[in-house]
Structure formats: C-alpha cells, structure tokens
Amino acid sequence: MHEDENIEEIVDIKNKKSTILNICLIIVICIGLLIYMITVDGIENIIKVLSSVDYKWVLAGLICLLIHWTCESLNLHIPIKKIYKNQKFTNSIKVSMIGQLFHNITPFASGGQPMQAYELSKSGKRVSDAFSAMAIKFIITQTALVITTLVIVCIEFNFLKDLLQNYKWIAIIGVIVNIVAILLVVLAGIKKEIIIVIVNPIIKLLGKLHIVKDTQKVTDKMNESIENFNNQFSIIKSEKKMVINMFIVAVIQSMAYYSITYMVYRAFGNYGISFFKIVPAQAFLLLIMTFIPTPGAGLGAEGGFYVLFNSMFKEGTINMSILFWRIYTFYLPILIGLIFLIPRKKIKN
Q: What is the spatial distance between Cα 244 and Cα 68, in angstroms, rounded to a whole number?
C-alpha cells in the first residue's frame, strides 16, 4: 500500500469548509473578546492600561514564547533525524510551526499532527514514519509535562488548594487523561495486538454510524501505522540518551510556556505573588484547556484565565492581560504558522 499517495485522505483538515468554519469561529471569539473589553473597561481605561504597560516584560514574554517554539521544533527534529539522517532543522521548524497553526484552528487541536505528517511527506518522509516520530515526541513531552506539573503542584500544594477550591476534580481528570494517553501510545509500541483489538471495533462502529465510509481501508491503514510505530518504538528503548535529551528539552519547553503568564502579570504592574505561584495556576489552566472542544480552546481558555487569575491581577488589568496572554499563546502561533505555510519558490543554482 502506497500510503503517501493517500495522504490527502489522512489530513482531514484539508477540508476547506471545516477550515473556514473554524477560522470564522476564531474571528468571532476575538471580536467578542474585544467588544466585552470595551463594554466593561471602556476605551479610556484600555488606553490608560496600555500606556502603563512595562514593555520589558512584554519582551521577556516573547523570549519565553521563542524558547517554547524552539524546544517544540527540537523535540520534533530529534526523532525524525534519527530515522532520516538528512533531515534539516529548518524544515523541522517549518513543520512544527505549521503544526502550531492547525493545532490552534481545529477542535481539540486535532489538525496539528496530520498537517505535520503531510508537510513531512512533501520532503520525502513516509507518513507512518512521521507519525511514529510524533508519537515518540508525544510520549516524552507529555510525560515531562505531567511530571513537571505534578512537581510544581506538590511544591505549591497549599496555595493551589485554596485557589482551586471546587475545581480540583478537573485537575485530577486532566492528569488522568494525560497519563492514559501516554500509556495507550506506549502500549502501541510494546503490545500492538492489544491496541489493534481496541481500535478495530471502534472503526467498525464508526462505519455503522456512517462516519467512516470504507472501514476495511481505514482498518488496514490503522493496522499498518500501528505495525510501523511498533517497529520504530525500539528507538525509545534503545536510544536512552536521546530520550533523556528530549525529556530535558520538554521540561524547558513547559517552563517557558508557563512563564509567559508571569511575564504578562508583571507587564501590567502586578507584584506580590511569586513566579512559583503563577506557574502552577497556569499549569492547571492548561489541563482545563484540554477539555475545551473549540479551536484553540476558545472561550474556555479566556474564562479559565479570568477565574484563576482575576484575584491576582490589579483591578482593571485582567481583561487586557487575557488579550496579551492569548496573543502569545494563540494569535501569534496562528500568524507565524500562516507565514510558514506560504509556498516559496525553490532557487536552483
């Protein structure tokens, strides 16, 4: 089976109607946020708040974002480089940023990995190899994320206990979901037969519900991908140094992402709450965003930020802080991803 010839079928996000609908939803959310801010805060207060922003902390936030992106690209590059020795880091950056774009404009961030596989296939990589590399990245980065979050939460447990109050169960579910996802991927690498037994009935059910048209074709593709990943999983077991390096990079990536909220906090003249209290609250917010089905966790992310951080920010600054935070974590990844998506003419010597 020539899977690369069927890549268009794998990348559902290529559906134009779905993409346009998601982008329209993002625009509506953005406009709604701006209208809400103008209505609640007023133009004069918004101008006053913006004029008082400490832009050295804004710059620090951008640096954290760049570190986050660099680590994301590096952890995609390392396993691909292990499979394809000719892989260039510049291509890994491009693939990573395009993944960021589709990660943010699709529900449950479902479009990121298929588009990354599609981009890698354009440079001669097999789709199954691309998904295997991304699965390796997923295992390591998610493990680092969960461990980092748990360590931070343990350090600031009392603070979080008072802050979360009635939301503790969401954090617990979030941690459990991430752990289960990691275990399922690891299981696919160790005991592929178990995953096949689980996946195949699901595909048949989707066929009966007319969600999947050709169940046999999808089943064959899925089984082939699982088989290929099972073979590639040996990289994780044999390349301990690579795994350790990726884990360290993933921890740095998580801390850089969490730090953005602290930079926003300081940019608006806030002080009194330490970095190590802002970070676990942001880690918890990331767990909440996992359950939001809208593109980029729209509305849920903003609402969660308001609930968690409203009491920490100075009066009249929380709404602008939400906007700045979303610029870093949502709008800039979309904008930069779009730039990387623009086709470039190849220059021949």
A: 18
